[in-house]
Structure formats: C-alpha cells, structure tokens
Write a structure and sequence with these properties.
With 270 residues, the protein is an alpha/beta fold. The protein has one domain: Purple Acid Phosphatase, chain A, domain 2 (4-Layer Sandwich), CATH 3.60.21. It contains five helices and 17 strands. Strands 9, 10, 11, 12, 13, 14, 15, 16 and 17 form a nine-stranded mixed beta sheet that branches. The chain has an eight-stranded mixed beta sheet with strand order 2-1-3-4-5-6-7-8, covered by helices on one side.
C-alpha cells in the first residue's frame, strides 16, 4: 500500500487536495440508508476522497472503493478474437496483478464494498471459463459486495454476474452526493458530483529532447474537475491516453507507491 492523496470535493463542484496521511479508513456507517441520511444532512459541504496509487479512489464515509475499466479478459480477447500471440504468462499475469492491486487497496482501507464504474469486462469472447473460475475464486477470498455500473464494453456481463457476485446498477447510479456513470457527460449534472471512467486518463511528464526522445514518463492519472472525478483505468493492460490540459481540471498521477499532483507546467502534452 502506497501513500494516498486526500482531496475534498464540494457536493456540487470544486476541489481541494491535501497530500499525505495515506488511505486511512473513515468512520462512516456501513448501512447505505445511514450514509444517505448523513450525506443529506451535510448537503452543501464537502466530501473527502482518497486517491490511491493502486488506481482506486476510497470514500471514507461511504466505506467504498471506486474503480473503473478493469477490462477483464482483454488479453484473452486479443488471443482468441484477433489471433494475437499473447503468452500464457501474460494472459494469467495481467488478471492476477490487477486483482492483487485491488486486494491491497481493500486490505489497506477496510472498504466494505466496491463500486465499479463501468467496463469490468473487455468483450464477451474474452470471458473464458478459466477467467470466470479464477475471478470467482478471488471473490470467495474477497467477498465485499461489487456493484457494477454498466460500461460500453460490458456486453453479456450477465453470464458472470452470479459467479462473481455482481449487483448490476444499469447505466448509472446515485448515492448522495455522487452520481456514478461510465462515460463522462458533456454537461454537469446539477446537485451531484460525477464519478466516471471510460477515458483511461494518463499524464506524460517531462520534456521532449531536441535531438532525441528526451526524458518522458507516462503514468495513469485521476482527473479532478469542478463537478467530476474521472478514474484511471484499473487494468495494467490498458495503456491510457495522455490528456491535454483542461481549464479547471487537476491531474493526479499514480506513481510507484504514491499519488501526486502534476501542475500544468509539468505536463509534456497540454
């Protein structure tokens, strides 16, 4: 478990970041109705989130992890559907590494549930029996409830729902003060702070050299805007796209063991 970065988000827009402290579990109640009542009572205030290097966000009051874009079965899809030569070590290793990272975040935070903001699967052809069995075995060891907001890749996710103990929430879900939706909408949604995925954001840090590649590194990133958080792709097998600088958006990179903010002047592409 690395060092998390605490941020506070207004329940209707804007952000503030506080480095350090790690992802220390909050003192929220586990009952959803109690959380809703507490959130409504604090309407107009701020909500704390912890951005973690495991590419997840932890909501202390809600006792929940937010993740997006696991794309389970992507390597299998490339091997089976496209005829790509994907070694067995890659087929199995990618899934195991991603799930191990999620397990570390669950253990470190004591989160009681996981909200997956779309694209749990990559494609139906990649959901092999071996993959279904492997994830089902992992779920036996980590039984915290999974709620899935459907993403554009989650076709035929119903075939794994029972084995993986999934609760399907359709195309969106609201739990005050958040609205969960996979694809970021073009316009804000009044009265809610959006939690989204889909874009696989990354930042490229450094400078390009005049006579060579220079010194550049690309890292998955959280994008935090006035009205939304866009989560990095959970899957290591999803490269991520470098995002241009957006007015009013802050970029938080997932480094080895630490999340840190990247100012505009630190981005190679903007």
């Amino acid at each position: 478990m690395g060092i998390g970065l605490r941020i506070t988000v207004p329940r209707s827009g804007g952000t503030h970041a506080e480095p350090g402290g790690g992802a220390v579990p909050g003192s929220g109640e586990s009952d959803v109705a109690a959380r809703e009542a507490a959130g409504e009572a604090q309407a107009g205030g701020t909500e704390e989130l912890v951005l973690m290097p495991e590419r997840v966000a932890f909501w202390p009051r809600g006792r929940a992890l937010f993740i997006a874009d696991l794309h389970l079965g992507k390597a299998n899809t490339l091997a089976a559907g496209l005829g790509a030569a994907v070694p067995e070590a890659v087929l199995r290793g990618v899934v195991r590494e991603d799930l191990a990272r999620l397990a570390r975040a669950l253990t470190a935070t004591g989160a009681e549930r996981v909200i997956i903001v779309g694209d749990l699967l990559h494609a139906p052809i990649g959901a092999t029996e071996e993959l279904i069995d492997e994830v089902a075995a992992w779920r036996e060891q980590h039984p915290q409830p999974w709620t899935l907001i459907l993403g554009n890749h989650d076709r035929k996710v119903g075939r794994v729902a029972e084995a993986w103990k999934l609760s399907l929430a359709g195309d969106g879900m609201h739990e005050h003060p958040f609205r969960f939706v996979h694809i970021p909408p073009e316009r804000p949604e009044p009265g809610a702070f959006l939690i989204c995925g889909h874009e696989h954001p990354a930042v490229t840090i450094g400078r390009s050299g005049r006579n060579g590649p220079g010194s550049l590194i690309k890292l998955p990133a959280f994008l935090v805007g006035r009205d939304r958080l866009i989560l990095p792709a959970m899957s290591r097998f999803t490269a991520g796209g470098t995002v241009p600088w957006r007015e009013g958006t802050r970029h938080f990179a997932c480094g080895p063991g630490e999340v840190f903010e990247v100012p505009e002047h630190g981005l190679a592409c903007r």
